[in-house]
Design a protein that fits this description.
The complex is a heterodimer. By secondary structure, chain A is of the alpha+beta class. Chain A has helices at about 1-10, 10-30, 35-55, 60-100, 265-275, and strands spanning about 110-115, 125, 140, 145-155, 160-165, 170-175, 180-185, 190-195, 210, 225-230, 240-245, 255. Chain A folds into two domains: about 1-30; about 35-260, Rod shape-determining protein MreC, domain 1 (Thrombin, subunit H, Beta Barrel). Chain A has five helices and twelve strands. A six-stranded antiparallel beta barrel of chain A has the order 1-2-5-4-3-12. Chain B is mainly alpha-helical. Chain B has one domain (about 35-165): Arp2/3 complex 21 kDa subunit ARPC3. Chain B has six helices and no strands. Classes of the chains: A alpha+beta, B mainly alpha.
């Protein structure tokens, strides 16, 4: 017994490392566990409080350029608003004619970004709004320019969002002009790409991709990005690279849409997939 | 012993806060390069206190960064545990590797292994070549971390905490 104990003592470093590696691997394989989500939400809440404390310090160097940018954008938006009002009236008339059902107007929550990570795996944003304001996991995050990402974790006063530059996020998208469908995904390095698009599809540089009506994660019609590179990936599929509609480097304010994925639809589709 | 554990824990928490809140300001976002100041502390603790301390503190720091990161939970915990263990090998030489350039060698070696494991797992299945992972991510992150750690490595002797050893 003593001999056995001596052996164990002599390899104690390796035993500790083995234990830690096993715990890490268990965590890696149970990433979507509800207990882990709870711990994550709790930690983000605590850390968010610290970050929001530092966030009150304004960046005076950016204020002048930001004001100029906002004034210009305001003028542009005022013009666009007038055009949109006309377009909406026209749309109502045409919709009535075609007897199409209208998309329900979505409510939203405005939020400020208190932490933003744009390198490696830290491609996420922390928002200063949480459960208390009605934010829930799965809600889409947008700006007036387009899609930003979706909420993956929520505490009472803060929430964490995956952005388009996150390998875990995949979005069902559609080419606004040619109505070609595809799956938007981040390749992990620098590019946002649309995959599963057949080689013969009609896609050109400058085309806008929007969220698809087939997506249960996002409402349809949100701008996602513009095609900047288009070619052949292999014998079957196209290689399409997008420039996101949102400039993630300038992102400061976002809106969280009160849009929850339809669980019944998810369950039905998942059950069918499992049967196949 | 307990006071030392508390001291190391506080230093790690402080560095994790700085890493998450401020390091973005000095990151080269154009090329996705960001220094890792937490691993400097993990390597220091490992070289000073050995493999068990290093592995446990590495695991804890990695786990907190994983939770705050919003990506694969457990990946940084795994890499930092292994890094703490590897750096702990250098604790057997009576503190020789705690000083100046020797510490830098250990740090660079450990950081390279840490990020090699990390990015190989992270980019699993992604359309990116091995060379790109190695040069664009592993080596660039290691070198930038090494450059940032020079602030510590070449800290004047009077204020260098290592001298207290």
């Amino acid at each position: 017994m003593k001999f056995f104990g001596e052996i164990l003592f002599s390899i104690k470093e390796y035993l500790v490392l083995t234990l830690l590696v096993i715990v890490s691997l268990v965590l890696l394989f149970s990433n979507d566990n509800s207990q882990i989500r709870f711990i994550r939400a709790l930690t983000i809440g605590t850390f968010g409080t610290i970050q929001s404390g530092f966030n009150v310090i304004p960046n005076v160097f950016d204020l002048e350029s930001e004001n100029k940018f906002l004034r210009e954008k305001n003028i542009r938006l005022a013009n666009e608003l007038a055009e949109f009002k006309e377009a909406k009236l026209e749309n109502i008339r045409l919709t009535k004619l075609l007897k199409l059902s209208q998309i329900p107007e979505l409510d939203f929550i405005s939020a400020r970004i208190i932490n933003k990570s744009m390198t490696h795996s830290r491609n996420s944003i922390t928002l200063d709004r949480g459960k208390n304001e009605g934010i829930e996991i799965g809600m889409p995050i947008v700006t007036d320019d387009g899609l930003v990402g979706r909420v993956v974790s929520v505490s009472n006063n803060y929430s964490l969002g995956q952005i388009l530059y996150n390998k875990s996020l995949k979005v069902s998208v559609k080419n606004q002009r040619s109505r070609v469908d595809g799956i938007l995904e981040y390749d992990g390095s620098e590019k946002i790409m649309v995959s599963h698009v057949p080689k013969s599809s009609d896609v050109k540089q400058g085309d806008l991709f929007i969220t698809s009506m087939y997506s249960n994660q996002f409402p349809r019609g949100i701008p996602v990005g513009i095609v900047i590179e288009e070619g052949n990936l292999d014998n079957m599929f196209k290689k399409i690279v997008l420039k996101p509609a949102v400039d993630f480097n300038l992102l400061e304010e976002v809106f969280v849409l009160k849009f929850i994925p339809d669980e019944e639809r998810n369950s039905l589709e998942n059950a069918y997939s499992e049967q196949q | 012993m307990i006071s030392e554990i508390v001291k190391y824990s506080l230093v790690l928490l402080l560095l994790i806060t700085v890493q998450k809140a401020f390091i973005e300001l000095i990151s080269i976002s154009e090329h996705n390069i960001q220094p890792d100041i937490v691993i400097v502390a993990v390597v220091y603790i490992s070289v000073r206190r050995g493999q068990i301390f290093g592995s446990i503190f590495g695991f804890s720091a990695g786990l907190i960064l994983d939770i705050l990161g919003g990506s694969f939970l457990g990946l940084l915990a795994l890499c930092y545990s292994i890094s703490g263990f590897i750096a702990g090998f250098f604790s057997r030489d009576e503190g020789k590797y705690l000083y100046k350039i020797n510490f830098l060698y250990v740090l660079l070696f450990t950081t390279a292994i840490n990020y090699f494991i990390y990015f190989m797992v992270y980019f699993q299945g992604a359309p990116i070549s091995f060379g790109d992972i190695l040069f664009k991510f592993v080596i660039s992150t290691t070198v930038y971390t090494g450059v940032i750690s020079l602030l510590y490595v070449f800290m004047p002797q009077k204020t260098n905490m290592l001298k207290a050893r």
